[in-house]
Design brief:
The complex is a heterodimer of chains A (162) and B (330).
Chain A: H1 5-13, H2 15-22, H3 32-43, E1 50-54, E2 58-64, E3 68-72, H4 79-95, E4 102-107, E5 112-116, H5 120-137, H6 157-161
Parallel strand pairs in A: 3-4
Antiparallel strand pairs in A: 1-2, 2-3, 4-5
Helix pairs in contact in A: 1-2, 1-4
Chain B: E1 3-7, E2 11-16, E3 19-23, E4 29-33, E5 37-42, E6 46-48, H1 50-58, E7 63-66, E8 72-76, H2 85-96, H3 98-125, H4 131-144, H5 150-171, H6 189-211, H7 230-253, E9 262-263, E10 270-271, H8 273-288, E11 290-292, E12 299-301, H9 302-317
Helix pairs in contact in B: 2-3, 3-4, 3-5, 3-7, 4-5, 6-7, 6-9, 7-8, 7-9
Classes of the chains: A alpha+beta (162), B alpha/beta (330).
Keywords (chain B): Antiviral defense, DNA-binding, Endonuclease, Hydrolase, Magnesium, Manganese, Metal-binding, Nuclease
Pfam families (chain B): Cas_Cas1 (PF01867)
Organism (chain B): Enterococcus saccharolyticus subsp. saccharolyticus ATCC 43076
Chain lengths: 162, 330
Amino acid sequence: MKITGTMINYYFVCHRKLWLHVHRLSFEEQHENVQLGKLLDQSSYTREKKQIMIDETVNIDFLQDWKIIHEVKKSKSMEESAEWQVRYYISYLRKKGIAVERGILDYPLLKKRKEILLNDEEEEKLKDILLDIEYISNQENAPATINKKWCKKCAFYEYCFS
Amino acid sequence: MVESYYLFSSGELKRKDNVVRMTAPDGRFKDIKIEMTRDIYLFGETSMNTKCLNFLSTNKIPMHLFNYYGYYTGSFYPKEVNISGNLLIRQVEHYTDETRRLIIAKEIIYSASYNIYRNVRYYHQRGKDLETQLDQLKALRKLISRAKNIQELMGIEGNIHQVYYTCWAIVVNQKIDFQKRVKRPPDNMINTLISFLNSLVYTSCLSEIYVSQLNPTISYLHSASDRRFSLSLDIAEIFKPILVDRLIFSLLNKKVISESDFDTESNFCYLKKNAQQKILKAYNERLEKTIKHRELKRHISYRHLMRLECYKLIKHLMNDKNYEGFKIWW
């Protein structure tokens, strides 16, 4: 199974969202915040070569000299999931023999950035996460709704709670 | 927010840069901003090119076509981009397994008839004597759960409509000879209005199905072999009492529509252009009207209820939550 950065991200947000996304039941496209995210991506860092797709699996926002991985986000909510998304990219590229130094989370709207590193302990944890994602995806049915405060802003909200 | 565009004038429909431009023979034009468009309805005589269709397709905008008489002729349904193979398999499984198919079909009829019942009750509470019909409808609705197959279910549905249509003469204040539903061609004002508005609901449902991941050709109440987007007919069934029938009652009772809106020589089959426009305007206003959704705790438009219906159906098919059809609650 090809595990994408989005899947890593969703794993930390909501297992149900992850399952639905894996089964191609995705509602992102029509959602306002997702469209805003897309526009943000189009209008920021226009000098860089962007959206680098590797192995048709991981899609990296942009790279600096194949050493620094950048991930652009609209806001800091769900920061942990974004951090792991970047750690996954670092790990993925390192396995391909690319000497990635670190990752950076960019918040162009907040004019902030955050450095992300990957240590051995986190590398180990990533392995478990990948296994867990496979496990969740292979479940027959979608996991139950989580009913957290961030559900209301989620593109899947109307699907989950209608 | 995105909108539906209803184009009545004749002319050329073409892509112009990043908009679709409708140019009338006299050179006047209207630009349709593509990001703001949900779907396009064509009522006039329009010529267009593949460039325009390709543009609509890449922007995932369905286009619904109507002939000179206002009858629905078909839709340009852009390529599906958001397909879930998994869901498709389940959709088919629920169709081929008669037991599972019947569960969904029953729920559709159950909800549709509930909405019908509520329409009758509404007018009963407003002083029209519909006591007997209400009792009959209640009795018929009890039979739904006992239906053993789709044919039987369709029979019950037919009976419900028969009773329902006897209410119409009482509800409608204008004198119209309306006994039963006649299609192709409709034979009086009410039948013409029903046909026209039904086709609109059908296309609205289709537009909503298009943005969901459901396959529009696999349906449960209607037979999937109808060579139509029959899932649209299924979902429309639930919303017709609220969107079509209520609207007809109100248009006729408020005298917005009367005999003069029809071409009488056509035996009332033909709605004049300005009448079509009046109805479309009323229909669109109805679709945009919002209600506070109980579970979602959000304001949801009537149109969006159709989308939620698709979601609920998906959840049923994915074995997530049993499908419960939309029943008007206010």
